[in-house]
Specification:
It holds the Pfam family DndB. Helices cover about 40% and strands about 15% of the residues. By secondary structure, the chain is of the alpha+beta class. It has 2 domains: about 5-160, no CATH class; about 165-355, no CATH class. The strands form 3 sheets. A 7-stranded mixed beta sheet has the order 4-5-1-2-7-3-6.
Length: about 350
């Protein structure tokens, strides 16, 4: 190759499926220039990647810029469509894996995994050019044609599993509400030892009553648009609210006392599902706004609600559809509206309002 017209990457050489691949560290400023993504107009069968979802890009780029000292990215995987040559640093056996990867200047770099990271990096560089000197790992494979690139995409994503929402929240250190929720749970009588922290769904025989993700979601709407002086006030409010709610839920108390299993409760009652937690969050938000001084007393009427799933008169078409638990935003609001009526509250938002706002 003509050394005047080539890319040179310090790299480590490895072997996978009997063929060489190379790992290099690329400055972020080079990523948008090397990896040009212009496949969106091609038919799916002619692409080696999924169509770029541009709605994801601002979220990822904001993550980089707002967490300048703590953001983390996994490697970009790419195929090189063009001539490549690896020159070991030394002929010494122990050093033959370290060297220089030389790539023809007219070669094309095809992203097999990481096109959203590439686009987000390009966006973040516009907001903060100083990011350009930082780097990201890139894994290079020598391209073997479209079929091989498509298979690589399938293989890379076949066994990829996103962590559950609960597990992501368990390890989350930047979201203040996530941190407060995790602190509040062991201090809340009704949740203590009853929360699944790693999974976002509960097994039939699980002894846990709710998931971390369900409680977090409920807390998010519960604290929405309410001014708090500090995090201590938020923490105490969440503890007080859920302990008050729990004191009026006799079936929840039976779980804690070991007199009933959570699986039986989910089978027979609507308030053992995440939709009920979210609805109660909506109710709590509006309740505190309407009755800031005596909201706890208003919650006593929760005892008068028939939470059984057999109560189709109240729950079918609201929290249930054809007997199955509904999981839509409108069903959460419909359930909240029903609870609000039972508590004698003014409805601040209905499904009709929601549909109007989405037009």
């Amino acid at each position: 190759m003509d050394v005047a017209f080539e890319y040179r990457f310090p790299a480590i050489r490895g072997i996978q499926s009997n063929r060489e691949y190379y790992i290099s560290m690329c400055p972020l400023r080079l990523i948008p220039k090397l990896f040009i993504f212009d496949e969106a107009e091609l038919r799916p069968e002619l692409r080696a990647q999924r169509t770029l979802n541009r709605a994801r890009i601002p979220e990822i780029s904001d993550y980089i810029v707002k967490n300048r000292d703590s953001y983390t990215f996994s490697a970009i995987t790419a195929s090189v469509d063009g001539g490549i040559q690896f020159e070991p640093m030394s002929q010494d056996v122990s050093m033959t894996r370290l060297g220089l990867l030389r790539v023809e200047m007219n070669a094309k770099f095809i992203i097999n995994d990481g096109q959203h990271r590439r686009a987000a990096i390009e966006n973040a560089l516009k907001a903060d050019p100083s990011l350009g000197d930082e780097s990201i790992a890139v894994v290079f494979f020598h391209d073997r044609g479209l079929a091989r690139s498509q298979q690589m995409f399938a293989d890379l994503n076949m066994h990829a599993a996103r962590p559950s929402r609960s597990l992501g929240l368990l390890y989350e250190q930047r979201d203040d509400l996530a941190l407060i929720t995790k602190e509040a749970i062991p201090r809340t009588k009704i949740f203590r030892d009853m929360v699944e922290f790693e999974r976002s769904t509960l097994a039939e025989r699980s002894r846990k009553l709710f998931t971390l993700s369900a409680i977090y979601g409920a807390n998010k709407v519960l604290t929405e648009n309410r001014p708090f002086e500090n995090r201590t006030e938020v923490l105490q409010f969440l503890i007080d609210f859920w302990d008050t709610v729990g004191s009026h839920m006799k079936e929840w108390q039976l779980i804690q006392q070991g007199r009933q299993t959570s699986g039986e409760l989910r089978r027979d009652f609507i308030h053992a599902h995440s939709i009920a937690l979210h609805a109660l969050g909506i109710v709590g938000r509006d309740l505190v706004q309407q009755f800031p001084k005596n909201w706890k007393g208003k919650l006593r009427k929760l005892r008068d609600i028939d939470w059984s799933r057999s109560n189709t008169k109240d729950w079918e078409g609201r929290a249930m559809l054809a007997g199955a638990i509904a999981k839509t935003n409108s069903s959460q609001l419909l359930m909240a509206n029903h609870i609000q009526k039972k508590l004698g509250l003014e409805l601040t938002r209905t499904v009709k309002d929601m549909k109007g706002a989405n037009k």
